[in-house]
Amino acid sequence: MPEAESLGHVPVALSPRERFVEFLQSRGMRVTQQRLALVDHVFSRHEHFDADQLMEQLPLSGQPGHVSRPTVYRTLGEFVDAGLLRKFVLNGRSVYEHDYGYPQHDHFHCTECNKLFEFENEKLQQLRDELGREHHFRVSGHRLIITGVCEECSRAKRRARHKMNMI
Q1: pLDDT at 64
Q2: What is the maximum alpha-carbon separation in the chain?
Q3: With 0-12 CB in 10 A as exposed, 13-18 as middle and 19+ as buried, what is 19?
Q4: Four-CA torsion 85, 89, 93, 95, nearest 10 degrees
Q5: Which of 16, 118, 158, 165 would suit a FRET pair with 41, their CA atoms being 20 to 30 Å apart?
Q6: Cβ atoms of residues 111 and 125 within 8 Å
Q7: How many Cβ atoms from other residues are within 10 Å of residue 86's Cβ?
Q8: Residue 132 has pLDDT above 50, yes or no
């Protein structure tokens, strides 16, 4: 997935690394160099990614800083459990994004190029809260992914159709 435009940050007391260490220690899990390297790498940039894309960015086997595939998958699950990442499924793939220190937001997903576009909408959040009250439901969050075709892909399709009319 391409890099997403940042929506800003929500103030947090701990860095992602500190929060993860606290999570591991609270569960009696070991704080390893591989886990720390992964949390540092994932939070050094803001982008949507899957496990394969993350593996491509990491050092290869035999190089310093290498992290095995099973460790990557296991640690991504730990990041989700720790509240650092959100996981959602797009076209059968698990995709991850920052959750800790990042504002509530939603996505447009282009079904042509597979890009995700983030957006915030106060009216949508107000509607969500209003619906919760109406149905006596305490809302703690939501996730909305609107699928369709982005402007760039729409233009490319129009250009392709236009060329076909010239034949």
Answers
A1: 86
A2: 69
A3: buried
A4: -20
A5: 118
A6: no
A7: 17
A8: yes
Beta sheet of 145-148, edge-to-edge order: 116-119, 106-110, 145-148
Range 61-67 contact pairs with CB under 8 angstroms and sequence separation of 24 or more: 65/37, 67/34, 67/37, 67/38
Cα dihedral sign, 70-75-76-78: positive
What are the CA-CA distances from residue 66 to residues 39, 54, 57, 116 (Å)?
14, 12, 10, 28
Q: Is 164 helix (H, G, I), strand (E, B) or coil?
A: helix
Beta strand 93-98 with 85-90: parallel, antiparallel or unpaired? antiparallel
Asked if 27 contacts 20 with a C-beta cutoff of 8 angstroms, the reply is no
Instruction: Determine the residue type at 107.
Output: H
Residues with Cβ within 8 Å of 107's Cβ and at least 6 positions away in sequence, in order, are 116, 117, 118, 119, 144, 145, 146
Q: Could you read off the pLDDT of 6-61 as tens digits, one per residue? A: 566 777 889 999 999 999 999 999 999 999 999 999 999 989 999 999 999 999 98
Phi (first) and psi of residue 51, to 5 degrees: -60, -40
DSSP string of 86-155, one letter each residue: EEEEETTEEEEEE-TT----EEEEETTT--EEEE--HHHHHHHHHHHHHTT--------EEEE--HHHHH
